[in-house]
Amino acid sequence: MHEELVNYQFALDASCIVSITDKEGIIRHVNNNFCKISKYEAAELIGKDHRIVNSGYHTKSFIHHLWKTITEGKIWRGEIKNKTKDGSYYWLETVIVPFYNADGIPYRYISIHTNITERKKTDDTLAASEIRFRALIENSTEGIALTDEHSNIIYRSPGSVKITGIRPTQNTIGHSHPEDFETIRAKFAETLLHPGKPISFQGRFEHADGHYIWMEGTLTNMLLVNGINAIVSNHRDISKRKMAEERLIQSEILYRNLFENLLTGFVYCKGIFESGQMVDFIFLNVNEEYELQTGFKNVTGKHLSTVLPNLFSSDPEYARVLTRVALKGKSERFERFVERLNKWFTVSLYSPSNGYFVALIDNITEQKAAEQKVNRINDELEERINRRTEELRKKNEEMEAFSYSVSHDLRAPLRGIIGFTTILEEEYSSKLDDEARRLTGIIKNNTQKMGTLIDGLLTFSRIGRGEINKTIIDTHQMVEQVILELKHRNERNTISWTIHPMPYIYGDTNTLHQVWANLLSNAVKYSAVRPNPKIEISSFEKDGQQVFVVRDNGVGFNESYGNKLFKVFQHLHSMNEYEGTGVGLAIVERIISRHGGKVWAEGRIDSGASFYFSLPAINPDFVS
Amino acid sequence: MDHNSIEVLLVEDNMEDAEMTTRELIKNHLANHLFHVKDGAEALDFIFATGKYTGIRDIRYPPKVILLDIQMPKINGIEVLREIKSNELTKATPVIMLTSSKEDPDIQKCYKLGANSYIVKPVNFEDFTLAIKNLGFYWLILNQPNF
Hints:
The complex is a heterodimer.
Chain A: H1 2-15, E1 17-22, E2 27-30, H2 32-38, H3 42-45, H4 60-71, E3 76-83, E4 89-100, E5 106-115, H5 117-139, E6 143-147, E7 153-156, H6 158-164, H7 178-193, E8 199-206, E9 212-222, E10 230-237, H8 239-261, E11 265-274, E12 277-286, H9 288-294, H10 304-307, H11 311-314, H12 316-328, E13 332-338, E14 343-350, E15 356-363, H13 365-427, H14 434-465, E16 470-474, H15 475-489, E17 496-499, E18 504-508, H16 509-527, E19 534-542, E20 545-552, H17 584-594, E21 599-603, E22 609-616
Parallel strand pairs in A: 17-19
Antiparallel strand pairs in A: 1-2, 1-5, 3-4, 4-5, 6-7, 6-10, 8-9, 9-10, 11-12, 11-15, 13-14, 14-15, 16-18, 19-20, 20-22, 21-22
Helix pairs in contact in A: 13-14, 14-17, 15-16, 16-17
Chain B: E1 8-11, H1 15-27, E2 34-37, H2 40-48, E3 65-68, H3 77-86, E4 95-99, H4 104-113, E5 117-120, H5 125-142
Parallel strand pairs in B: 1-2, 1-3, 3-4, 4-5
């Protein structure tokens, strides 16, 4: 029996860490292992309180519980942390067994320990790890969800809950958008088929609030991964991004459409520069219209120098313009004749970013041809006008010379006829009877008429040629002056003149004076026969024109022939009745029409006549 | 005839006009010392004592008034006017342009050159004689000559 006990003891000592204390807690025995692990010598331990190896780790209640258990005679099992002689720690899995004496009272405690320090370390690390990873998942804005193979939720991270909201039903595929359902289901199936491989997915899912959100993420089959045993989904809400994408797509479609269908040639290029000057460029993008207009095919990606080698050397100005636009960013627009194609283009250049340029070209060859044609016609026209003007000028000169001749050469003989007839009358008065004097009178009269006619014709022709120098005229003053001149010439002052307020007018003083003189002398002439000759002069405004009226109570005229009045030499009365050259009114018409106005007359046989003429009205602000 | 005490120098190429003018001046006793030349060249010779009037005329004794027609052969009235008015010794002499032409360029030109008066010969004889009478009285009687 003793041998067996010794063997047990030996076995125990060899395999475990053993210590024996008495019921006061004093160490009575330690084995080698105990010494090894605690780093104390046996002599240092025996007789000491076991608290010598305390680490201070355990709580008072823990220790109290331990003592209570063993003092009650029960076996205590647990894990204890102790301290070595040099201050390091170790963990022991411990069994404390009380020994009874003959009285049945525990008097010795035997503690059997196993060194579990390593295991404990692993546990700690694991614990720390767990805390870290839990924290990661909890705090991630990305959603992390674990589902079973039927896509039922096992776990949802707070991030995931935020994304989709809290839903009563826990099946994920079931919450996908009807249109995306099939796609999602297929992705899930693929996930199941490829354990460990992340499968990307994208689709719309129903939010707890009822609306749909766009989600994107990966599904990974970790059903057979210890500790997870689930399908892992990493996902995020990409609704905003999706909307932006959609808008971008629409925009792209729009602009692509524009680009493709534009009837303007579009070319996008990157400039190649040397010392700040563009020496070449690369075609980055062109549209169909550009190819059509230029005849270039498949130039995208090519250098200008390969497509059109001599462009920049033959047209350095073009290179300068492109450089300017591409580097300064200022848009330019101009017309350009391309000899190679024999076409005219408008070229609009702008720079989307530094060093790059876009050119929009429009074929304007036809318009240019039309333009040139118009220019040519204009030039021809101008030349023709110049020639005509020159001809007119020469004609005018001829006319002037002619008038001058007429004026001088015709008058002299007339003067002679009248003069010498008078001399005849004077020198031979005794030899001339009444009849003779009547005859000489006729000679003189007719000659006089001829003279007046010539004067009238000359005035008439001069009016047509002369300059109109416009100034502001006080009409009232002019009229009064003319009346005064008429009064001087006619002794008959029995005419009653009524002059209404007259506005200032813009016109040529000399010729308008003539107008008034002619009209008023006419009025005098034809109303003189009346017992109470009345002449009324007035004015009114109509349609921006100032109209003047000379009304007399004379013999009038037949209005149906009214339009003849203003023609040269036309009379509506026989020459005997009323003297006149027949040119007076024609002169009036000439002058007024040169002022831009009109003349007309109203009359009735024996009821007087009204003569009208109009002139452009003067702006009231003008007169100051 | 004393060529140096001429009162009226009539420069006129038209003989009938000259006759009528002279007649009128005579009628009004204004033509005692009237001299008639028929063209501009002779007028200049007379005034400047050149040509056939060399020695006969003294330039320092100009006529009281010169009646000058414009349209004349050889040298026209405007040229004659220019000569008269640009010579220190003669430019004070009153020159009356007596002409058929009422054409503006002539009037302006004559005044610019210093003509003292411009009268258009009217066709009507009465008017003509009246004009001659008036100017005769004015320039020979009323007007203070230059001494």
